[in-house]
Amino acid sequence: MTRILIMLSTVTLGLVAILFSSNSSQFHTSSASVTPPMVRDQALLDDLHARYKNVSKQLTQLMPRQPYILVDTARNHLYVKRSQEVLLDALASTGSGIVLDKPGEGNNQWVFDTPRGEFSVQSKLTNPVWVKPDWAFIEEGLMVPKNPAERVEQGVLGEYALGFGKGYFIHGTLYTRLLGKNVTHGCIRLNDNDLKSVYQLARVGTPIMIF
C-alpha cells in the first residue's frame, strides 16, 4: 500500500517537473524556432495528461479491492477504505510516546508508541478481556502479581478487538472523552459504534497501514 502511494506521488511530481521545465525553457528558445511555443507547450501538456491518466489507472488497479484500514497517528483518525472510497472515518486515540523504565533492568524501557508501517488483521475477538502486562502495574505503583488470575480485567476493551501483532489491538475504550488524543500505550482506541463498523468491515488478513 505504501509503495503504491509513493509511486503515485513520484509520478505526479515527475510529470509536474517536466511540465515546469518545458514552460521555463521557452525563455531560452532561439527566436528562429519555427514551432510557436504555445503550440509546442500545449502538445506536451496533452501528452503529460495522457501519461498521468494512464499511470493513475494502472495504480488504481493495483489498489486492494477489499476494504483496508489506514491509521493517521498525527491526526488520530482511523479510516476504512475500499479503493479510493472512504467507508468509515473514525476519531481514534493512539500511542502517547511516554517512556517508562523497566525496574531492575538497567536502561531498558517501555515506549508507548503505536507502531508505524504495514500490518494486517491477525485476529478478531468478541468480548475480549485484558490480560494486564507488567507495565500496567508498575505505572500505577503496584507490585506485579504472581497469580495470573490477578492480571485479567474485563469490560475495558469494548465488545470487539482486532489484533495486528505483538500485542497491539484496535479496541474500544471507557475514556471516549480522550478520543482524538495521543494517550494510549500503543493500541488504537475507538468508540463503540466505530469499533463495531471496523469489526464488520474487516476480516483476518485485511491490510492495515499506520503512519
Main beta-sheet strand count, sense and barrel state: 5 strands, mixed
Percent helix? 25-40%
The largest beta-sheet arranges its strands as 3-2-1-15-7
Shape verdict? elongated
**Would you tell me the overall average pLDDT?**
84
The secondary-structure class comes to alpha+beta
In sequence order, what are the helices and strands, one letter per element? HHEEEEEEEEEHEEEEEHE
- How far apart lie the N and C ends? 12 Å
Beta content comes to: 25-35%
How many H/I helices? 4
* Number of β-strand runs: 15
Features:
four-stranded mixed β-sheet; alpha+beta; five-stranded mixed β-sheet; single chain; 211 residues
State the gist of this model:
Helices cover 31% and strands 27% of the residues. The chain has 211 residues and is α+β, with helices and mostly antiparallel strands. The protein has a five-stranded mixed sheet with strand order 3-2-1-15-7, covered by helices on one side. A four-stranded mixed sheet has the order 8-11-12-14, covered by helices on one side.
